[in-house]
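URGENT: need a sanity check before tomorrow's submission.

F., can you look over the Formyl transferase domain protein (Modular protein) record below? I want to be sure the sequence and structure line up before it goes out.
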Amino acid sequence: MSLGPLVSLIERGVEIRAVVIPAPRVHGRPVSPISSAIPRMSHAFLPLAVPGKSETIDQVAARHGIPVLQAGSLHHPRTIDTLRALEADVIAVSCFPKRLPPSLLEIAPLGALNLHPSLLPAYRGPDPLFWTFRDGERKSGVTVHLMTAELDAGDIVSRRAIDLPEGIGGDALEEQCAEIGGELLADAVWVLWEGTARRRSQDEREATYQPWPSTSDLVIDPGWSARRAFNFVRGVIPLGYTPVIETGTGRLAVSGALGFDEHAVLDKKIAIDGRELAVQCDPGVLYLTVSESGERDG
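Structure tokens as predicted:
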């Protein structure tokens, strides 16, 4: 789980039997299938973080007396037995980087809930926020759904749309997803417990799946509008991605988006001035900064 949803569950009075986090991998050392974790002192690495919070997920759990377990293998019988012994009614998942096997999903009698940062069934897959920005969407959202063997395809319990303001960063969108998603996840746990959940199946005709982005997915398309390209750059850089622009002789790594003009027209495709450049889009002109590393091979 991410920090925001964990805090929401605690504040809503949900009894949490344990928090499970991925086991760190140290080169040359075997990884235990599951073990107790010592709270880390470093900043949380999971993507859905709460602004202004300095504690990590395991530190918050420890402060509330919640056991923290590190899972090295979700398929190992010892892991399954350890988690089954907790006798949890519901499994709640948020931004966990490993896929839960069916043998684990079935140990909770009320089911397993997943918090997904898109309006399912659109943008199934591991990084929906990247694709939201790349596709030029002006709306995103969060969905809480029941987990099945098929990734992100289970019945929807609740979801909420989020309008995307011009130039919003992926980090800011993650914060909104964490806050709203935490509320929805806590609500979903309680309605499952009370037997009042209104679940609805996903319409497979509207389903889309996107994998992890490839290098080619980071290329800014001059066929996009300048507005779309601006929002893509502003959105994905805080997510840890480096967009690139093709110059005809190579590629430049983009470090930021200064702005755009929907009506401007250049007399050439790209105008470069030091670390700043203007790119003719369709329509409009996009204004970017590039990294000091300069041009790189495609």
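My own read: The chain has seven helices and twelve strands. Residues 170-194 form the longest helix (25 residues). If you see anything odd, call me.
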